[in-house]
Amino acid sequence: MTLRNDDQLLNDYGKRGDAAAFDILYQRFRQPLFGFIRQQLPEAVANEVFQDCWMVVIEQASDYMPCGSFRGYLFTIARRKIADYWRGQQRQPSQTSDDGNVVEQFSDDVDPQKIQLQQATNAVILMCVGRLSKVQRDAFMLKQTGLAVEEISLILGATFETVKSRIRASYSQLRRCWERHHE
């Protein structure tokens, strides 16, 4: 059996209805795609966006024309879906409980101090990532999914050197931010 590349698999699915080809693609990209989405969205929303991305792939499979890599195509769909979600959130009022606080429930086997420490750490990380410029944040988040710089440059429509510089600058800025908040 010969190994088929991602574009061939999508073409086989889109043009011939080869469900096994789609299954191979799904298995190859399931974890990296969900990880990328989950880094940027709450879990419940991430599940929905994840499914939406695959629905777009399914709906557009018969018209797919490779102009880069399938991975770039898939992650571009995800970036657009994530951006759509956040644009929608900006138009809606935030939801809180009646008293204005978020109520959390802990089970007996969970250490609330560990949870508080993890939440504080997460808050610092998110705050630091949030301080990155949009172009740095996009490059950083895509790099965190394991994409190569070449693939990130295709997704972002920027040169290889530009993406490399954005990633390097984001790491440097994140390191400085982290150090400032942990002195």
TrEMBL record:
One of its GO terms (biological process) is DNA-templated transcription initiation. Residues 25-91 form the RNA polymerase sigma-70 region domain. It comes from Neiella marina. One of its GO terms (molecular function) is DNA binding. This is Ecf-type RNA polymerase sigma factor. PANTHER family: RNA POLYMERASE ECF-TYPE SIGMA FACTO, RNA POLYMERASE SIGMA FACTOR HI_1459-RELATED. The keyword Transcription applies. It comes from the Bacteria. Keywords: DNA-binding, Sigma factor, Transcription, Transcription regulation. Belongs to the sigma-70 factor family. ECF subfamily. NCBIfam families: sigma70-ECF.
